[in-house]
Every structure is written in C-alpha cells, then in structure tokens.
Write a structure and sequence with these properties.
alpha+beta; 38% strand; disordered N terminus; globular; Chondroitinase Ac, Chain A, domain 3; six-stranded mixed beta sheet
C-alpha cells in the first residue's frame, strides 16, 4: 500500500514541483496512535519502509517525512538517495518512550519524556543519512523562555546537548546524526 501511494505521488511529480517550485518536495507517511492518545513509557511506534518505496521516491526526486504523533523525521531527496546507497532493503523509523535512566536525567527533564528515536536497516544498523532531521513536538509551559529550548542526548546517566537543535514554534528540531535517547531541555 505504501509503495502504491508513493508511486502515485511520484507519477504526479511535475504537478507537485509546480506547486512547490523551490526546494525539496516531500511525501508524508504517518502512523501511530489515535489523536487523543499519548505515547507512554514502554510504548513504541515503528514505521516500516521498503527499499522499493525509497527507489520510487528517489527516482521522482522526492523527500520523505516519517511522522508519528510525537515526532517526525524528515529526509531530503539527497538523504533518500544516501539511504539507498547503503545495504538495507527494509528500514524502520522507531520512536519509543523510555523511563528516565537516572535521577539526574529525571531532574533535568523536569517531567518531559525521554524518547528513543532511531532509523535502522533490517539488521538493526544505524541508517542515519545526511540531510535528515528529527523533530519532537513540544508545547512550552506558560512563561517558558523558548529561546533556551534544546534537544539533549541521554548517555548513561548524563545528558549531552545536541548541536544545531532549535525550537521552531511547535517542534524542537535537530540534525539526525545517530540513533539514541533524547529529551527536550531548557536553560542552555
């Protein structure tokens, strides 16, 4: 079904590119929970993408947005081509809510969830591609200084700020360099 939807979109590439003359054109694939549900600790959402679907996108010069209710990954047309250059035939975009690994992460997170976010091939290998971006939906608290919001990687019992992360008004975004556990923090 996914391949058919991508092929139909690829067949209409000239119409899409006329509508968006500058930059990449993206096909959005969405999956996950219903609108009134949230991702609880231990729950995960996985979107499965076949190599043939990526070939359809690449051939049409399209990018891809893999969307869940809490986050999305956006792959430029070049990132789609880079994925195809790898060894995978099936790719998985997974978002999993995970418990705080330590009291220090819990204190820093101030109640914000930790998500394990990954793009892997069928062997479980990291399939990160240049030109890919992660976005996690975030609603600031009243009076919160949004200029200080950033993504942090959770490593063991500590956190490391993610270079290039920023808040765009609805999501905290950052370049996808590698898979891992992430949390949104404030006060950088």
């Amino acid at each position: 079904m996914l391949t058919a939807a991508i092929q139909q979109a690829a067949g209409n590439i000239n119409l899409l590119k006329q509508a968006v003359p500058e930059g990449d054109v993206f096909i959005e694939i969405e999956g996950g929970l219903s609108e009134d549900e949230t991702l609880s600790a231990g729950q995960k959402i996985t979107l499965k993408i076949y190599e043939s679907s990526l070939e359809d996108l690449s051939g049409a010069g399209l990018g891809l947005i893999l969307k869940t209710p809490v986050s999305y990954m956006q792959l430029s047309g070049e990132a789609v081509k880079e994925l195809l250059a790898g060894t995978g035939t099936i790719f998985y975009f997974t978002v999993k809510a995970v418990p705080y690994p330590s009291p220090s992460v819990s204190n820093a997170a101030q109640g914000r969830p930790v998500y394990d976010i990954s793009l892997t091939d069928f062997t479980g290998k990291n399939a990160a591609a240049g030109g890919a971006e992660i976005a996690v939906e975030y609603t600031p608290a009243e009076g919160e200084d949004v200029s200080k919001l950033y993504a942090a990687r959770v490593v063991g019992s500590g956190i490391i700020p993610v270079e290039g992360s920023y808040f765009d008004g609805t999501h905290v975004k950052w370049p996808h360099a590698e898979n891992g556990k992430f949390v949104i923090l404030t006060g950088k």
